[in-house]
User: What shape does this take?
Amino acid sequence: MVAPQTAAQGGGSWLIVGDAKDYERVRSRIDDGRMLKGFLQVALGAEAFAAWSERPAGMAVHDHGVLAVPRNAFLQPTAVVEDLHDHRLEVRMRVAERAAAARELRLEPADNALTFVRHLAATFDPSTCTTCNMFVLCRDELRQSTVPADLLVELGVDPDLRPHVLGLVDGTGVIGSAPESVVAGIRASVDGHAVHTGQRRTDPAGEPGTINVVIAKADAAALGIHGMSVQRVSAAGVGEWHTEVYDAPQAPETRQKAMRLLGSAIEDAMRAQRKATPEAPSPIHLVVPDGQTGDVLTSMADNLAGVELSRLRWERDLAQGRPALTWDGEPAVLPKPLRETARTAVSFLLEEDRARALQVRMPIVDLRAVFSRHFVAGGPAVNALRLDYATEWARATVPVEHRAFADAIEKSPYTPGARLTKERSDALHRALVGGAGRGKKRIEPDLTAYDAGVRAELGYKQEVLGAALTELAKVESSALREVYRAVEGDAQAVWRRRLSFTASDLVRFGRTYRRWRNQLVRVIEADASCHDQLLAVANPQAASDLATDAGNRQLAHATVVGIDPLVLSVESRRIVDGSKIALLHINEQPCVEAHRDDISLGGSFVIEGMSVGLLSREGIGQERPRNELRWKPKHAPGVAVGDRLIVADAGWFAGTAYDRRVSIARPPADEYAAPKPTCTPQSYEQAPQDHRWCCKPHRANEAEFSDQLAERRARGELNPQAWPPVRDADGFEVSPGGLPQGDATDRPSQAAPTDLTLDDVE
Assistant: This one.
């Protein structure tokens, strides 16, 4: 962009460098890392223009740059301006590094470039190299290699770990100290069978009170969906799938319809859970095939909640005789109210949004992540990010050839998650809006084909999710399953009060105010500690990885070297003579599973009967290694010489009274800014000051905010021409009346020009 300079600036012109990005808004904001990368690209352009020999006289490159980023659900760009000084410094440094490397590299014209590339010692990573034009060539070279170590490169094993696990692929069988998860991935690739981690189930997937959800996301808008299917699981069994197809993927009405479908299932599940246990209803969960499905649903809820809060403010403005205005002072169009059923879904999804800072809680169950806690598939770990890939490995009865299977998955026209393949997305778009045929002939929309295509896409996702649940059902339930359920139950009891009182139920994590966020710090810390301890107690593979980690202080591997007395060889520099330890796993078998009936769910989760005791050098000869220690637990475990153990520092847990139990502190629920159990629907009206921080409804809160904005606007503080300008940082898509809206379906799609490459277009 070129703009004139003022007379004081010299009277010349400014060259302002910018770029346009198609970043999708997920939840409340675009990831800062992607914005940084975008501004580095803008800075590179600014440096190129600054060094341009044909730049007109009197034209200077401006020190600020612009990034046009889609900030709303319609992917309409908003200009973000930033000072490029620091970015240009980094770009100059990087360009100088590459120029120096280019000067050192000399390739003669007669050299064969393909041979040259094949002999480069490149850093291949299957998770990050897929965007490179050389990816297929490099991967093919690794696949055809007869060098055993190249298989580790193909699988994406960290270079520092390759010497330790080389024995798994070169036939020697000798391995060093390496994370058990990495070892399991290599074994699965070599043997062709998925490796079970040893953990039993702690997730609620497939249990009564869960709701299975799959969606087909539209690429035309960040929050657009082609269709959604919902299936409820109750005490009577697994219900039927209910499917809706939307022919206006990005319309606000579509988001409302999707939330009503989901809200209806949630309300049915809540009623069933309340009927089963009226005093303390069990929690409910949404089960999705991948994390992006949950992100899209939560972002839709974020959008609808913001629109509803704006509507409440504008209702107050109209009731007081004031015009309804947007942040920029433009006339606003009052949106439709959020229906009660849709509000239930929105409120639940925003509860998930606040819970994403926690780890023990899971209002939305990512089935792919759950699957990875139980099964390790072969091939590059990035391939297991697809639920269909991981599921087929778990259900295979014959050895799987990971390369051929990965290629078949890559060629599949369908996906198990929210986002579609490019081919399927284009086909659905053409069926919805039509297209341009040969010559001037136009292909008309075909809504029948569109409906069939969306249902076929959702059908595949339903099939994969059902297959994954079937495989998970074969895994035994853990003794700690009720512990996770208790934590979620505590939190959802608070959420149900928020929903019932319509108080703070439409607040996402990014909009919690300072005092609330400060209170959440304590909750997040307690949750993280509880998560780490439960994982170490229940998952042998995760515990082994922690014990292998040199930075870990709490867990260690140990080997039984004597029985009478019981002597352990402890592989730790921190667990020494005088330390008190608790036994967690014996030969990859969790000890907690033997105490299923000895777990109490009080203020702490107490596991009775665990082996806990002091280590000492008593009776150990001085000629013996210093890490061989005598252990005297009150409950002697059934072990033999040579058994491999995982032990933990007993002081890590909440309490180990009498050396016979392990206690894990129960994390508190997020009860701040929530109605108390003693609050009634009339509490706020009767005593506003006493209940302003607990059960104050959104309607009253937004009415007060509307009055405050009106007072500030009357004082001239909300003048959009003032500096700094007024900005709606949330971008809730409440647009002023008459503002044109983008619509990706208002015209037929056009095929890309055959005479241009992607580089030409960019």
Observations:
- Residues 20 and 68 are 5 Å apart (CA to CA).
- The chain has a mean pLDDT of 89.
- Residues 546-665 form one domain.
- The chain has four domains: 2-104, 113-178, 210-512, 546-665.
